[in-house]
């Protein structure tokens, strides 16, 4: 068994087999996994917001769906991943609190998921699987060896996508 | 509007004021809680912390610890969020006391339990905010409370995301309370927007 590399909120990192990469308690944030199944090399970004151009304080690239995905891809390519091999899996983007329909502030999870998917499309990266939305938190673990994304949630069966 | 508070160079004086706000707010709220369950509830010295987002969940026992989070959004002269967080076990304990249940009952919450918890959140946050309002003479209106039972990290992501729009750190006024015998443990977390910090400071003549 390899090591488990931990990624925090507004943070990102990469890892290769036999190590694995995880982020704990994803709520409305989205966990973006990019990986090269041939090189068994993967990266995880824990993004908080959809769009870096809408925010003044945007120096931390890992905070946004757009710049976070770019930076993660960049790191993977530098580490030797093949651009055409790279595929994606995403999880998170929950709506943690039931809300009155017009409160945009609490619909952020949905917007994070949409922005992530748009960005992947723009980069020509295929989205293989997703476990997003609904109203609960997720802990995710990604294993570059098998390409499996393990999703754990409170009171629910472990899910592998 | 440019905030006078520079999060990276916050003055000692401002820290002290924010701490005092936590003290008074949480003091009032703890008294309300104490009366509600008819038992003594202790309060720890509040902490004012400037945290990176990735450190945020560590303050409440780790990103995966199970909590009941009650979230209130603030409007009026102060904008932001207020979060009342209880460890899941503590929440069970509170409900058991209030509903006259067996003290060892840790089965899933019923609808009735959930509305009791919501009401506790309402009363306690109300006590916190009304003392803040009295102190600052500012008008604070609060939304209907929203509740979620989940991992602390997931619940905290909601106020964290709000904060992430204006910065890379969150300044929070956090007060922990706990009762030794019965282990009712929880946190009040006040997260005003940057502009609201200015409002608070100004209202206190600083």
UniProtKB/TrEMBL annotation, chain A:
A single GO molecular function term of this UniProt record: protein-glutamine glutaminase activity
Enzyme Commission number(s) of this protein: 3.5.1.44
CDD domains to which the protein is assigned, alphabetical: CheD
Signal sequence extent: none
Tagged with keyword Hydrolase: yes
Record keywords, A-Z: Chemotaxis, Hydrolase
Any GO BP annotation: chemotaxis
PROSITE patterns: PROKAR_LIPOPROTEIN (PS51257)
Catalytic activities: L-glutaminyl-[protein] + H2O = L-glutamyl-[protein] + NH4(+)
Cited Pfam families: CheD
Gene3D superfamilies listed in its UniProt record: 3.30.1330.200
Similarity annotation: Belongs to the CheD family.
PANTHER family cross-referenced by the UniProt entry: CHEMORECEPTOR GLUTAMINE DEAMIDASE CHED-RELATED
Function summary: Probably deamidates glutamine residues to glutamate on methyl-accepting chemotaxis receptors (MCPs), playing an important role in chemotaxis.
Name recorded for this polypeptide: Probable chemoreceptor glutamine deamidase CheD
Organism field: Anaeromicropila populeti
Gene label: cheD
From TrEMBL, chain B:
Keywords associated with the record: Chemotaxis, Hydrolase
Pfam family, one: CheC
Annotated InterPro entries: CheC (IPR007597), CheC-like_sf (IPR028976), CheZ_family_phosphatases (IPR050992)
Xref: Gene3D superfamilies: CheC-like
Annotated ranges, domain CheC-like protein: 13-49, 112-145
A GO molecular-function annotation: hydrolase activity
Keyword Hydrolase: yes
Record keyword Cell inner membrane present: no
Biological processes per GO annotation: chemotaxis
Segments traversing the membrane: none
PANTHER family: PROTEIN PHOSPHATASE CHEZ (PTHR43693)
Protein name as catalogued: Chemotaxis protein CheC
Species in which this protein is naturally found: Anaeromicropila populeti
